[in-house]
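Lecture notes, unit on protein representations.

Consider one protein chain, 263 amino acids long.
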Amino acid sequence: MQRPFNFTIYPYSKISRLPKFLQRPALILKNLAARSPKYKNSFDGIATMHNLGFLSDPRFIVASKRAIQAGGFDYGIPLRIHQAIWCADKAIKLPPDSVFVELGTGKGYVMSAILSSLEFMKADLSKKEVYLFDTFESSATDFKSEQDLSLGRNIYYAESFNAVKENFFEFPNVNLVKGRLPATLMTFELEKIGLLHIDLNAPEIETQCLRILWNRILPGGVVLIDDYAYSGFEYTYKLFNELAKELGVQILTTASGQGIIVK
């Protein structure tokens, strides 16, 4: 069965920059192009004829439903969620006192999926400290993390600190850290990081934070970079590649635009 047309205009997308009278026709053309009969699945800038069996996996379905509960609607990013769960599966095997860190939580879409997927697998989360860093505000930012009022409220950003706190109420080991990065990193002695998820839409701050945290990531720890190779994020791609060369590591490019580093 074909997926229904997606008429969501995503912030920072090429379509969002078109005049309003052209946006809907452009979305229709984009949806029609994605429905080429040779592709079985199309979403999030991806079209593939290959097997995506994880879409029907009960664990993935539970995680996706929990993500939608957090975000308020389906973001249409199943491969990103699948890969985030894969990264968490690697990280959960590290010592029990290792921690999960997320820079740019928004409403909690991705981390809600991660934690519910681990819970589904009966993973022991009782001692797993999770630190989520964000301003927990809905104001949009530009690609250098400078306020841009013309972008208005970003539909993916947190509406309030209390709303995100309520979302993670079932996970008592989740710690919300409100404020601007990288300054808020100095408020916690973060050590033994097993999983680091970076999604700030601000490449200069993202790479600065990774540089600060790199030596605190355990061997075997996983870094997931949300917009590493995503279309329109060429500056992000450039800065992370420069940092990877400096650190002596390689970043795996995925079809979703995410980058993955296993230390």
